[in-house]
Amino acid sequence: MKINQQFSLKNHIILLTGASGYLGAAMTEAIINADANIIITGRHVDSLEKLKGSFPASLSDKCHIFPGDVTEVTFCHSIFLYIKQKFGSLNGIVNNAYAGRVGTIEMIIPEDFDRAVRYNIISPFMLFKELKPLLIEGVQISGSSSSVVNVASMYGCVSPDPSIYCNSGENNPIHYGASKAGLIQMTRYLACHMGSSNIRFNCISPGPFPNIEKECNIPNFYENLAKKVPMNRVGIPCEVAGPVVFLLSDAASYVNGINLPIDGGWTAW
Fold first, then answer.
1. By its UniProt entry, which Pfam families does this protein fall under (predicted)?
2. Which of the 8 DSSP states describes residue 203?
3. For range 67-75, the mean pLDDT
4. pLDDT tens-digit profile of 105-155?
5. Using CA atoms, how far apart are residues 147 and 194, in angstroms rounded to an integer?
6. Domain with 140 in it: what CATH number?
7. What is each CA distance from 120 to 8, 18, 191, in whole angstroms?
């Protein structure tokens, strides 16, 4: 197979959760440009429609909207029925959805942990369990592997530096990092359990990707983040999207059970 064909997602059906967010939108664009049909999900249908409408017709025709909250009990079965009826199979899932509060240790309450675990561990697991027959069908049709990519975080591997946040109270919180660490370990478990079925599980762990389009009230926040990166800069969304396409594609057909840092070297110090 030619190198460029290995990276193609032609004839692939991919589900992406949290599609309209800062990183999700870049992933959506990259997956469509790799020639896949993509099903984008999120809680806000207006945001999903805006994202779909941002693509030219030749690409937007490959973008399919399914609004919903991945933490709702009924979501997994509803998306299963939708994919089965519309496509009949599935080749990949990208678990990117997350929502939760930031804050210091003093601000954290038990509900914050409950919410983080629902998004980062329970929902990705239950979604896979429901969609497993479609992923197996995808393996049989394609003659290759299906792929699940879990979006973790460098803070699932290392702790944030509290000094970066000054006295803002907008700290990256413990429940976020702890649940992302759980997602990384769950990925390893599933990679080992599902490898014989040709369903690959891998993580990416994005580093500092602050949304620079949003107003930031923390003094010198972006500059202080950049200082902690060997490359001396923060990341831009397309730099996450490329590795996602790679892990979904046949170019990664023997890549299983990894956690890929995308952090400019932050965790290499």
1. adh_short_C2
2. E
3. 96
4. 999 999 999 999 999 999 999 999 999 999 999 999 999 999 999 999 999
5. 10
6. 3.40.50.720
7. 28, 12, 17
Pairing of strands 259-262, 199-206: parallel
The amino acid that residue 193 corresponds to is H
**pLDDT tens-digit map of 146-205:** 999 999 999 999 999 999 999 999 999 999 999 999 999 999 999 999 999 999 999 999
- Cβ pair 177, 157 in contact under 8 A: no
Q: Which two tokens stand for residue 4?
A: 């460029």
Q: Using H for helix, E for strand and C for coil, what is the string for 124-167?
A: HHHHHHHHHHHHHHHHHHHCCCEEEEEECCHHHCCCCCHHHHCC
How many CB atoms neighbour CB 268 within 10 A?
Answer: 9
Counting the structural domains of the chain, the total is 1
User: Domain span at residue 65?
Assistant: 3-268
- Rounded-to-integer distance, Cα 75 and Cα 92, Å: 17
pLDDT tens profile 85-102? 999 999 999 999 999 999
Q: What's the pLDDT at 3? A: 58
Alpha helix stretches (DSSP H) within the chain = 3-6, 22-33, 45-53, 57-60, 75-86, 110-117, 123-142, 174-194, 221-227, 238-248
What pTM was estimated for this model as a whole? 0.96
Taking residue 157's Cβ as centre, other Cβ atoms within 10 Å add up to 18
Contact 236, 161 (CB under 8 A): no
Nearest to 244 by CA among 5, 36, 11: 36
Q: Please write down the long-range contacts of 52-60, taking CB distance under 8 Å and 24 or more positions apart.
A: 55/29, 59/32, 59/33
